[in-house]
Write a structure and sequence with these properties.
Radius of gyration: 22 Å
Bound molecules: flavin-adenine dinucleotide
CATH superfamily of one domain: FAD/NAD(P)-binding domain
Number of strands: 21
CATH class of one domain: Alpha Beta
CATH topology of one domain: FAD/NAD(P)-binding domain
Number of helices: 12
Strand order of the largest sheet: 8-7-17-18-19-16-20
CATH architecture of one domain: 3-Layer(bba) Sandwich
Largest sheet: 7 strands, mixed
Helix content: 25-40%
Length: 439
């Protein structure tokens, strides 16, 4: 056992944990970061595509340079550069059995119905303060499955298909698994632009998320223990004790729990977490996207494809044209969901899926990661199911004794984004500093 060598233990070396560790170290605290994986970054993971020399993001990827203010402040602080995904030049859609090569895949009537839906959604969005916990606002009526919410509008099959594709692209879930309130609470973060949910993102870190993550870690000077999955967290009146599955026991005056929401139930907390936090963690988040990467030839230049439930891929686009990859093809990124039989690591399967849109396409290599089966993620980015946020949003992030909580899954603003992780990490550090100053 290590004695009280540390002031603070930070559990989890994702964006939230590293932000908290850096801020606490800057406040003079001796910090140890305890991470289950053999790398930092968590759900942000930049590594070579299919054993080539060209790297891609398997997890968190795009940023909004205008809205992601805290993440951009971090990038600026460390001089981390952004680059841009190419603007699409060729559009293809597969909706209601019809293949189209056009930027707008819906009829004028459907466009009018979409405008009406957007108007109605914006009226509801006006009721939401994205900076405050949703259980402290009068919005429980919106915490219903998106499927039920959309059913009220009598939308045509192609329009419903298009919207369903956007929902799956933004959440990794089917309409029934996701709360209308969750997606509505994103809209203020998208500058009130509901249709931004259907846009492809553009900006990304030029040298990958690891560029920023590593600089944050280096700047913190915190000690890092990798390959050390935490099994138990026990707190007493004056300290916190963390036991790892490797049998190590670590002690400090306080801890930041910066773990994925879906992994919280794997830790034995003593005393137990509050009944509300435990209930929220037991519900968990539903994000279960399949993010695919493929090296493809015989594609139209800079293509963007969208599809509805009949298509095995909801959205795909050229992220790195062949001239940039030097790999003899374009690198295409795409998203699908668990209920589709698509195996993103099977070259032939992926080629058949892409050929539903572009019959000439040839897939040379594929890559991806199964985040749902990953024991230290158990899901992709946060997609809250109905009944979670209007009941447990405050409890999920509430401090418990000497434990403060962080992570993009429990953020109010930018829940599910890297921005949300950074924001909650900073808040957690401030909270723990205050607790340690008092006790
Ligand atoms: C496929 C995919 C695409 C995404 N795309 C985007 C995007 O384009 N833009 C965007 O902003 N966001 C995106 N996200 C979301 C973004 O990556 C996450 O919201 C963010 O990185 C989460 O940071 P975090 O620190 O809260 O959690 P995490 O990054 O999950 O960090 C938690 C850490 O805890 C560790 N851990 C888990 N269990 C234990 C344990 N028992 N003991 C010790 N350590 C443990 C994990 O290994 C992990 O390192 C995407 C995510 C995925 C998966």
């Amino acid at each position: 056992m290590n004695g009280d060598t540390y002031d603070v233990l930070v559990l989890g070396a994702g964006f939230a944990g590293l932000t908290a560790a850096r801020d606490l170290a800057a406040d003079g605290k001796r910090v140890l970061i305890v991470e289950a994986r053999d790398r930092i970054g968590g759900r942000a993971w930049y590594r070579p595509f299919a054993d080539t020399g060209f790297s891609i993001e398997l997890g968190g990827n795009w940023v909004d340079p205008d809205g992601n203010t805290e993440l951009m402040a971090e990038a600026e602080r460390y001089g981390v550069a952004l680059s841009q995904s190419p603007h699409p030049e060729h559009h293809v859609s597969l909706l209601d059995g019809i293949l189209r090569h056009a930027a707008c895949p819906i009829t004028d009537d459907d466009r009018a119905a979409l405008d009406q839906l957007v108007k109605e959604v914006l009226v509801q969005v006006e009721r939401i303060d994205p900076e405050l916990p949703l259980d402290q606002q009068d919005v429980a009526d919106l915490d219903v499955p998106l499927h039920d919410y959309l059913d009220r509008f009598g939308l045509s099959t192609p329009l419903r298909g298009l919207i369903g594709g956007w929902i799956r692209e933004n959440t990794g879930c089917a309409e029934a698994q996701i709360s209308a309130l969750h997606l509505m609470s994103w809209i203020p973060n998208l500058n009130g632009d509901v249709l931004a949910l259907g846009h492809t993102p553009t900006h990304r870190f030029a040298a990958g998320t690891i560029d920023l993550l590593q600089r944050m870690l280096d700047d913190s000077g915190a000690e890092l223990r990798l390959s050390s999955p935490v099994a138990a967290v026990t707190q007493s009146a004056d300290h916190v004790e963390v036991r790892t599955h490797n049998g190590e026991v670590l002690r400090a005056r306080g801890a930041v729990i910066a773990l994925p929401l879906n992994c919280l139930t794997d830790i034995a907390f003593e005393p137990a977490l509050s009944p509300e936090k435990a209930a929220g963690a037991a519900i968990g988040q539903s994000g279960a996207a399949k993010k695919l990467w493929a090296l493809v030839t015989d594609l139209p230049p800079k293509v963007l494809g969208v599809g509805c439930h009949e298509a095995p891929i909801d959205v795909f686009f050229t992220d790195y044209p062949a001239a940039e990859t030097g790999l003899g093809g374009d690198l295409v990124v795409g998203f699908s969901t668990q209920e589709r039989p698509l195996d993103i690591l099977d070259r032939e399967d992926l080629e058949a899926a892409l050929r539903r849109y572009l019959p000439e396409a040839s897939v040379l290599k594929v890559d991806g990661h199964d985040w749902l089966a990953d024991p230290y993620a158990k899901g992709t980015w946060c997609a809250a199911p109905a009944g979670l946020l209007s009941k447990y949003a405050s409890a999920l992030e509430a401090t418990e004794g000497r434990l403060v909580f962080a992570g993009s899954d429990i953020a109010h603003a930018f829940r599910g984004w890297m921005e949300g992780a950074v924001r909650t990490g900073a808040i957690a550090a401030t909270r723990l500093s205050a607790i340690l100053a008092e006790r």
